[in-house]
Write a sequence for this structure.
């Protein structure tokens, strides 16, 4: 294993020629729309326009993003939680961007019972035009929020796997507990098949050597179950360092739960360790992170009584002698606080590093009873690697335990009345489902534009507070287009996922974009996608995109000096070549996709793009006609050529 790196989390290792085919993200907090729209999606979808440009550039960006999301409809999935465990920094949510959820599937856990989604897993499927497909996997401590990526230090593991053309059960088995974790996450999110495509991707690639996944799923797991599927602390046996003698563990997490001496002993026993060889990296009371790092006083007392060591992690922007760095590139002036979750296991010369979402709490690892069963509250995921580096080897124990930052208690973990919900629309009916602790008190309303419509009738679905309502709605999609559920003083907002056909979704209005210019802007971006001229900086220029070509009016066949022009139509040929080049680029894309993947989902979008290009060229022909009759010839020819090619479009 190489040395620990220091780099941005929001990046990709996929080759630059690759395009994103499918993506999955799990996060504790609901993903920030602003983070997705202005940072993550432009990166992963490789957009050509910028969200922070001037007004014209921003409108092009929004149209381009909406177009790409329509192409990726239901191929990007985000799973989050409603319940809370640790302090939350809310930053970046933006109601202006809620329209993205009509194309991105947003799921929450809890459909089968109380659950907290705390894992941070990214699965990115990349396709290369001339090479293999890739699966990029990221396991980290980072939520999909601006606060997490800008204001916190995170731990992460990343790999890029080359995929085989065909799946294999043998390859799937190399991933250990990871496939079972993904299945359990899908079931808790209310759709057992929604994440199946990502399991199929795992079956097309092999897990890297010396990599072991450690996962937790909510529930009560008997000893017999844990022998088959070692969830939570039971999985630590799989990553225990080889060798003789008791194993040791060093831990750094920003949140420590309530532990007693006996529960600490049992946790250490899972990897063959002892509490005397347990180290917790922690901070002092004056540390700038003290409001974000939580350690209960009773847990500190249990750790000390059990013989564990509490190591002092210093941080003083004004004094380098009192500051301990995570990495040689960790600047003293860096004011981000650590949200990293790292566990370093050691025995003799053997070392294992666990990069995980799991805090040091029984909610994450499980509470073991006398029969050896584990009760786990959270979904957690980590990856263990062979790693000798540990940035905190030099730390010393506190001289005085009174200097250790603690809190009196952690309070009661929130248990929302509405623990799960979903809303989908097929163009006629909005189906709303939720799980509520008091189903008789749940109510809801649809917010579409400035109008609100109440949910009239709820039906109980089985036990455990599951409810369903079917609401008739055949009007237009109008932002914010959300269902607001209420139970007592609690409110849950559900973005409505748009399940209509592609052609119906195309006509949906896009907030913030000038509707008078929407068609012209969309046409220019469509041409641009297939090699046409870059969209004009000023949307008003789209109607005058050929002004740089001099088209004579009818009968005007003389040059400025009075002589006859022998090439008055040259500008028309130049423009025709530009338009026909777009047609050729589209045709090449069809040919390439047919050669590589005859059943690829992009085939449907390529055909639809061809139809849209025909319409766009006809509109462009009318715009070009303003510069003279000959100016309209190129776009007209391109429309005719495309219409012919569409008749011979290769079907699956």
């Amino acid at each position: 294993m190489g040395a620990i790196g220091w780099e941005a989390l929001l990046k990709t290792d996929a080759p630059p020629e690759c395009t994103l085919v499918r993506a999955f993200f799990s996060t504790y907090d609901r993903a920030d729309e602003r983070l997705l729209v202005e940072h993550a999606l432009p990166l992963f979808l490789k957009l050509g326009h910028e969200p922070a440009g001037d007004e014209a550039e921003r409108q092009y960006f929004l149209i381009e993003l909406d177009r790409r999301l329509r192409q990726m409809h239901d191929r990007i999935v985000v799973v989050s939680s409603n319940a809370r465990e640790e302090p939350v920094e809310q930053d970046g949510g933006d109601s202006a961007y809620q329209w993205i959820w009509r194309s991105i599937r947003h799921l929450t856990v809890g459909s089968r019972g109380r659950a907290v989604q705390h894992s941070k897993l990214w699965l990115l499927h990349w396709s290369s035009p001339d090479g293999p497909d890739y699966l990029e996997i990221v396991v980290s401590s980072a939520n999909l929020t601006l606060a997490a990526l800008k204001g916190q230090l995170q731990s992460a593991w990343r790999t890029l796997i080359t995929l085989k053309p065909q799946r294999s059960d043998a390859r799937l088995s190399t991933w250990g507990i990871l496939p079972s974790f993904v299945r359990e996450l899908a079931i808790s999110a209310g759709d057992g098949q929604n994440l199946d495509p990502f399991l199929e991707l795992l079956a097309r690639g092999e897990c890297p050597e010396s990599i072991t996944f450690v996962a937790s799923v909510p529930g009560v797991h008997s000893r017999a179950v844990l022998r088959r599927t070692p969830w939570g602390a039971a999985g630590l046996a799989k990553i225990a360092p080889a060798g003789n003698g008791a194993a040791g563990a060093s831990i750094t997490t920003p949140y420590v739960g309530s532990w007693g001496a006996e529960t600490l002993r049992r946790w250490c026993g899972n990897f063959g360790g002892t509490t005397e060889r347990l180290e917790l990296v922690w901070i002092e009371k004056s540390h700038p992170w003290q409001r974000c790092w939580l350690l209960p006083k009773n847990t500190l007392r249990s750790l000390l009584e059990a013989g564990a060591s509490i190591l002092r992690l210093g941080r003083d922007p004004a004094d380098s002698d009192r500051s301990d760095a995570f990495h040689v590139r960790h600047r003293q002036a860096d004011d981000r606080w650590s949200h990293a979750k790292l566990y370093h296991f050691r025995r003799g010369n053997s070392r294992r590093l666990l990069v995980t979402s799991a805090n040091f709490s029984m909610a994450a690892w499980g509470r073991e009873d006398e029969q050896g069963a584990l009760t786990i509250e959270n979904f957690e995921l980590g990856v263990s690697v062979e790693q000798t580096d540990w940035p905190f080897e030099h730390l010393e124990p506190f001289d005085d335990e009174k200097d250790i930052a603690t809190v009196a208690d952690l309070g009661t973990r929130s248990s929302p009345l509405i623990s799960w919900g979903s809303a989908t629309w097929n163009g006629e009916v909005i189906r709303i489902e939720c799980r509520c602790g008091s189903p008789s008190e749940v109510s809801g309303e649809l917010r579409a534009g400035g109008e609100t419509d109440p949910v009239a009738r709820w039906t109980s679905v089985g036990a455990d507070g599951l409810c369903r309502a079917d609401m008739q709605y055949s009007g237009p999609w109008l932002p914010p287009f959300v269902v607001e559920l209420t139970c007592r003083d609690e409110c849950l907002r559900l973005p409505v996922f748009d399940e209509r056909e592609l052609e119906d979704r195309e006509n949906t209005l896009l907030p913030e974009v000038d509707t008078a210019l929407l068609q012209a802007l969309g046409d220019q971006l469509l041409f641009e996608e297939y090699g046409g001229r870059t969209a004009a900086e000023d949307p008003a220029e789209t109607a005058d995109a050929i002004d740089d070509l001099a088209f004579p009016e009818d009968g005007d066949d003389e040059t400025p000096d009075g002589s006859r022009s022998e090439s008055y139509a040259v500008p028309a040929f130049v423009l025709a070549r530009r338009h026909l080049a777009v047609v050729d680029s589209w045709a090449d894309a069809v040919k390439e996709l047919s050669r590589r993947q005859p059943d690829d989902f992009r085939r449907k979008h390529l055909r639809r793009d061809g139809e849209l290009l025909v319409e766009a060229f006809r509109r462009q022909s009318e715009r070009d006609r303003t510069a003279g009759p000959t100016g309209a010839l190129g776009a007209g020819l391109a429309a005719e050529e495309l219409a012919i090619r569409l008749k011979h479009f290769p079907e699956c």
The longest helix spans residues 570-596. The radius of gyration is 29 Å. Residues 84-93, 542-557, 564-568 have pLDDT under 50 and may be disordered. The first strand starts at residue 19 and ends at 26.
